[in-house]
TrEMBL record:
Organism: Caproicibacter fermentans
GO MF annotations in UniProt: acyltransferase activity, transferring groups other than amino-acyl groups
Keyword Acyltransferase: yes
Sequence ranges assigned to domain N-acetyltransferase in this UniProt record: 7-172
Keywords: Acyltransferase, Transferase
Protein name: Acetyltransferase (GNAT) family protein
Length: 175
């Protein structure tokens, strides 16, 4: 008999913080094991993640009450985004997705897509009509996730770890 997963999306709370640290640490280790040098002990660090929670910007996808993925949504664009020729969202401020993370044990189950869709719904409910984000060129799973979710490439930016692809999507409220 197949067990039905009890998945829920909600804002992260301070009481989730130890789970959040564990979630990001596990995903960071898994990326390193796969040769993806995207995250480390400096980014995203404890202070950044705590700030995400305190500002009410982090969403958690939980399974049976335990966080299995997280994503941050706000309007903060990296200064490097100014050099990108964005195709949509020139008038209204876009929502920006940061630090989408699926726990190491939960990867490969479609939870990244569900987390992304939840962030899009929240963005739409907050009045954003476009989403922008970036992901490391050497993280093929993330690139595939965003492309399969209807995001368009807008250009590249360079951060300390290397080249990142900038993506954008027009939200229609149907996600």
């Amino acid at each position: 008999m197949e067990r039905k997963e009890n998945l829920k999306i909600r804002l992260a709370a301070q009481s989730d913080f130890s789970w959040i640290l564990s979630l990001y640490a596990g995903a960071t280790r898994k990326m390193r094991d796969e040769g993806i040098d995207q995250w480390d002990e400096r980014y995203p660090d404890r202070e950044i993640l705590l700030q995400d929670v305190e500002r009410g910007e982090m969403l958690l996808l939980t399974m049976d009450g335990k966080p299995v993925s997280a994503v941050v949504l706000n309007a903060e664009q990296s200064p490097e985004y100014k050099a990108v020729e964005w195709h949509i969202g020139r008038v209204d401020p876009p929502g920006v997705i940061h630090r989408l993370c699926v726990g190491a044990q939960a990867q490969g189950k479609g939870l990244g897509k569900r987390t992304l869709e939840a962030a899009e719904r929240r963005a739409y409910s907050l009045g954003y009509r476009t989403i922008r984000l970036d992901t490391f060129t050497k993280n093929p799973a993330a690139v595939k996730l965003y492309e399969s979710a209807g995001y368009s490439r807008a250009g590249n930016v360079t951060f300390c770890k290397g080249t990142f692809i900038c993506f954008e999507k027009l939200l229609d409220g149907e996600t």
